[in-house]
Every structure is written in structure tokens, then in C-alpha cells.
Amino acid sequence: MTLIDLANPTRFLTLTARILPWLAAATAILLLVGLYQAAMAPDDYQQGSTVKIMFVHVPNAWLAMFVWGVMSLAALGTLVWRHPLADVAAKAAAPIGAAFTFLALVTGSLWGRPMWGTYWEWDARLTSVLIMFLMYLGLIALWRAVEDPSRAARAAAILTLVGALNLPIIKFSVDWWNTLHQPASVLRMGGPSLDRAFLIPLLVMAVAFSLLFVTLHLAAMRNEILRRRVRRLQMMQAGRRSA
Amino acid sequence: MTLGPHASFVVTSYALATAVVLILIAWIAIDYRRQKARLRELEASGVVRRSGRGGADI
Fold this sequence. Notes:
The complex is a heterodimer. Chain A is mainly alpha-helical. In chain A, 79% of the residues lie in helices and 0% in strands. Chain A has eight helices and no strands. Chain B contains one helix and no strands. Chain B has one helix at residues 7-44. The A-B interface holds A 10, 13, 39-40, 43, 48-50, 52-53, 56-57, 60, 95-96, 99, 102-103, 106-107, 110-111, 113-114, 212, 216, 219-220, 222-223, 225-227, 229-230, 232-234, 236-237, 240 and B 1-7, 9-10, 12-14, 16-17, 20-21, 23-25, 27-29, 31-32, 35-36, 38-39, 42, 45, 47-49, 55, 58.
């Protein structure tokens, strides 16, 4: 099956129905393995047990940015290639990305209190992630405010691409400005600086959360396609009544 | 496994992540049922897509 085949919503729904149960099972298994490894990971010599917060905070922070990247590609799909499923993908991803960003912010805050002595600091990393969260909420509001999905799609695509400018700011904020947030310790030149005892559970949790995103995103896309079919049928029904 | 003096921060983080993920799953599952039910209602009232397939056959 090629990408062009997936442009057909009915074929997409057929494929989704086939793979969703397997994806959900793989996600559940990997999450359980990751949680077990996180529970068994040793305490950090400086951070003590709070290092365990890293195993939920970091995957959510990565996914907060990754989901915006997916939405940016979908935005290009809407504006440039006019792919029929592009705006469906973007709309379905926004609430999931918002949830991951919310979790990244809150778990970061809960990690910051015992380590930094404060829940919040208006520095570049935290503020740029908060801006991304607000932009996620803005996108969701935009989708809800405009009734016609194709009109909403174009406006949302432009807003998404504008928001993508924030991604390098988030990534490099810890290098460009003074911040309480630590610099990158996994995705960095010279390889990860984390000990294997922390790196392996972190990577397992990252893959598990990524699979969770793929599963939820496909399911939400399926719902959005159904919602548009309902809308079209309701319009046909209204047209018949008025004729 | 002991979590020491900062246990409440660790436990709250995991509890919150679990709650948010469960809410997302429930929201998507409920939305799916709702859309399928609406399609079935429309199909029962005689409204079908141009392809001739019933909406609930998806």
C-alpha cells in the first residue's frame, strides 16, 4: 500500500481498523516494561528519587515538539500538496500534542520544585514551551471556531507553520540563554551523557510514548473522518428536507 | 523501592501522567462511539453517501 492509496479515507479507515489493535497492544506492553524499568532504576547521587520524574517528563517534552513537527508536515500537505488527509491529521494531532505539552510542563514543574527550589521560572526554555502549549490551545480553538473544515484547515496550517518557528527556539534555548534548565543530555554532539541505568529506561519510555502517540493519532484521525462523513450526511439530509 | 523525602513529587508526576493518558484514551473512544452512532442514525433515516455505501459500513 502506497502513500497515494492512503489518500483515500476509506482505505485509510480499513488499514487503521487492521493495525490499531496491534499498535495498542505494543504500546501497552512497552509502557509496562518502561514503567518497570523506571521503578527499578537507581536513585541519582545528586537528585535522589526525583530522577524518576525524568522518565515521564522527557518523553512528553520530546513528543510535545515532535507532534508540532508532524502538524507542520501536515500543514504543508494542506497548503502545498492538498492531501485529503493532511488537515485531518493536523486537527487530530493538536489535542494529543497539547496533552503531552501539558504533561511536560507540569512534570517539569514538579521536578523543578525539589531540584531548583521553584515550580516555575520565566526563562527561555520554560517560557517557549508554555508559548507552544498556548499555541496548541489556540489551534484547537481555531478548529472549533470555524465550521467549514476546509476553511479552518488553511488558517490552522498557516498558524501551525508560524508556530514551527518556536521549535528551534525551544531546542536551543538552553544553549543560547542562561537558564535553570539543564542542557541536552541525550540528543547531543558526542552522544548521550546519561548513564545506561537511566538511558535505557528513558529510551524505552520514549518509544512507548511515541507508540502511544501513533495509536491515539490514528484513532483520532479515524474519528475525524467519521465526523466529516456525519457532517456531509447531515447536510444532505437538510438539503432533502428543504427541497 | 523507597522514594525518600521527595516521594510526593514523583508519585504526583506519574499519577498525573496516567490520568491525562487515560482521559485521552477515554475521550477518543467515546468520540468514536458517538460518530458511529450518528452515522447509523443517518443511515437508518435513509441518508446514504454518494458511493452508495452506508455510513455505518465504514
